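re: ur question from yesterday

yeah so i grabbed the chain u mentioned. its 682 aa long if i counted rite. heres the sequnce exactly as i have it in my notes:
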Amino acid sequence: MSNSSVLTGNPLLNIGFRIPFDQIRPEHAESAVDTLLAQAEAKLEHLAAAGERGFSDFMHDLDTLTEQLGTVTTVVHHLDAVVNSPEWTAAKLAILPKVSEFHTKLGLHPGLWAALKAYAETEDARALDPVRARHLKLTIEIFRREGADLQDEGRERLLALNTRLARVTSDFGKNVLDATAAFELYVGEERLGGVPQRVLDATRQDARERGRDGHRLTLHQPVTTPLMTYADDRELRREIWQAQQQVGKQPGRDNRPLVGEILKLRREKAKLLGFANFADYVLQDRMAGSGEAALTFERELEARTRPAYERENEELEAFYRQQAGTDAPALEAWDVTYWAEKQRQAEYDFDEEALRPYFPMDRVLSGLFEITRRVFGVSVSEAQAPGWHPEVRYYDIHDGDGTHVASFYTDWFPRDTKRAGAWMNGLVTGGPRQNGVEPHLGLMCGNMTPPGPNAPALLSIREVETVFHEFGHLLHHALSRVPVRSLSGTRVAWDFVELPSQIMENWVMERDALDLFARHHQTGEALPQDLFEKMVAARNYRAANTAMRQYSFGLTDLTLHVEYDPQGSADPIALARETMTRFAPYPLPADYSMVAAFSHLFSNPVGYGAGYYSYKWAEVLDADAFSRFATEGIFNAETGRAFVDSVLSRGNGEDPAALYREFMGRDPDADALLRRSGLLPA
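ran it thru and got these structure tokens back, copy pasting raw so excuse formatting
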């Protein structure tokens, strides 16, 4: 701990590389942020003062102006997400408007804007190397996009919009978290026929820990996914599905009015800044370039996928009628996953649950780290650092020369005080310095199947892919060699940021890679070849339905942020439901409001708003880029080094399209994803 934090008693001040998570409390947040804001404001005024500057005492200082503030803000938001409590939520809400106001004022500061434009005209600026010149160019563009040319009234309105957006999107996320945590259903084992034993054990233990008999069912994914896939009790599946639909709709936690308000605020902000809609504002600096371009991308994929999608649904309907009888009730939302799994088992003699014993979490991680060593030339080893929960682990990453380039935390299992999903965050940005290399610091979180009373955490194949995915993001942060903080690591165009994460998933389906870690947790037996072949054969089972589900999210997002008029009479919830109906192989209820729980879009002032298409965009890139590994060898160190040199280490130091061409020697092949999914001939 630094001398400053000893004197102040606040572990969030001068936080350094080793974050004292075991000492940080909610009451530290606001006072630390107040102190850091005062320091940042003083530095801002110094930067805005007249006088000729060079890169090191102007652009570099501007680049690092909010570094400490950003780390502390990230830590507070993170702790609110992983050890949530009323106190942490209050701490987050206390700092939100202050930080939002400062960032808005920073982008609108007339003196700083004038100093930035003046620096751009100097000889020093004209002599910058390509990365620093790009930093200057992008900084000027960002200032313009954030309203630097606005006059007094416009500046005040933008500040109000940003402050309100920060608050209302935070409320949205809290409502989802609280509603998810609040649900519990206790049932007897007689209602859990067909459900895997590991889920029975976990839900029974969960009930016991709360002094109850039976099984405690929650809305956490490790519970809901196997229930919807395997539970023979149709009424139970219906109860769980309908409980999921209540998230974001309950009294006191109703996000439906917030959706309309967020869309209205975002549209007004975009128009104030000179854009037709929020999507155009967000996508100006991304590979797609505009909302219409992203819509066209999604709609073209939809059109090419729909014939296979309709064929898959006809085949499932025929299978269902054959099994259940011609007079059986129509398939509903809570039936499709269950009957699709029955069909898959019948067609491929393959049950994904048979894979779990071969995927204990610790082996998955050791295999992932070995693949990383072979392909990318870096080693991962467990280390020690204070965490925010007993389940947190900490690791160091060293490059081939033994240099410590990064460290990271992991937190893999669900808790009632932890938000859903999986994510990676950067905490500290290191990289090249005059005196060598400073390490990066990051984290990975998930909600994977937890350990049972007498068994380790046994992951599904989808969870294994998720672990690999998040580690791809982590490597993008950890291996960055960009000397400019704001261009480092994952700070790239959002439709490029998923390339490093999604390409990692490809190794999960490769036999040679699986042989490094897929071993039975009791016997040590390698994954049997017949089970592997069934897994590969079933890989693209209902691939069109999987793709269409993703298109539905992306097109709903873009429809709301491009085509919906917040000033009109249309209901955004109804419009979202109408859009999603085109992609649902079953009727949706009249009050279907999944969008009210769509945290990706609405729990952050920007987040994935107008950017959900990025997943599919990057899937095209990753399917195509992995074809080079498939040709040259999945453990080919030269290919891995080329990927590090062209993508993982370069951050936003060059245009992403140019980086992709550097690695592949050409532009992306748009058909690569459809071929990999079996929707086009290989």
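noticed a couple things. The chain has 28 helices and nine strands. also The two ends are 57 Å apart (CA to CA).
anyway ttyl
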